[in-house]
Specification:
By secondary structure, the chain is of the alpha/beta class. About 30% of the residues lie in helices and about 25% in strands.
Length: about 400
Amino acid sequence: MARNITDTLQPRKALPATLIGVGLGLGAGSLVAASVSALAGYFARRVVTPEERRTGNSVIREVRTDSEGKLWLHFTKDDETSEPGPCSFLTEFDSCALRLSAPEDVPGKPRLVARKIEKIYHGTLEGVRRGNFSGAIYEHPSDLGFEAEDVVVPLDGGDGPAWLVRGSANEDLWVIGVHGRGARRNESIRALPALSELGATTLLMSYRNDGLAPSAPDGRYGLGDTEWHDVEAGIQFALNHGAKQIILLGWSMGGAIGLQTADRSELAHHIDSLMLVGPVINWVDLLSHQARANKIPRSVGLFGQWLLSNKAGRWVTGQAAPVNLRRLNWVERAEELKLPTLIMHSRDDEFVPNGPSLKLAALRPDLVTLKTFAKAGHTREPNVDPQGFAKAMTGFLTKRIAARAS
């Protein structure tokens, strides 16, 4: 298999005219191989390439005003639009950002679902037809009543904007929020109520390719294999400003980043523990799942993984270096886990299924505390069950504070 893949990627010289007839005879097979290569290349590039302009998947069917003058958006009912809990809605090309209420039925229209506009963060709905839902329902810590300082974390590529929310009772306990792929630092705002309850200081940081921090030289995600360097810089920032106990809070790909930081950073001994929300525990499992979900043949999906993880593939993916997928597989590396870890993962997460989280928890019950949720989509655990989410976090943090004291 490796030989055939390598051959596919080798540059070819122009064929002599005498060989054109033979080439026509092989045309059908070559066409199939080319199609497989093209699809695998597209799949691999999508995984590591940040999206700059999003057109939106959910269409606004109606805009209605209720008797109190409140605006409601009606959507076609599906798993995403009818998911429990509040959400945010980012309209096409990020022209408008809204916070929406939990879904409600539309009387007389069973195929529609309604969400009330609770706040317009920026932009206008004029002319807008579609957008994307997100669980990150707050744009700034002040939306939840928290004072945040604008600070800068020095990264390898330049300054990384961050928010610093200072604690009280345990101000030298720092929780560093590490957002997921395609998200930004505001993803961790939902955790602030639980963190402030214990008086922890929180650093909500940005990292390479997220639209706020400087891009990596190749402009590609490393799936945690490269971004951990930026989190290491966040740890150094925390230490320079009085942190004595550091906990990483990683969302989705941010979980993979946190695990790599704890494994590979020279500052890892300063990390007390990890809290992971809908984390990517095993990229091979996730890539296989995403290939199936997008009806991509297994062979094409495997070829895409090969392109991501081998040097020859960088000519297709645009990566400066391949991603070490084996190093990112914490089910296989379960024995190497060193830190107490809280995993919060919904069994109804269809984007990053919780199977690897369950396996890691079963393999390392001495270190992993698992809290499962229901009816929550990817990283929507605090939206669907805010009380359960807060209780899991405060319970874990209380134990970590006590462990430090003893």
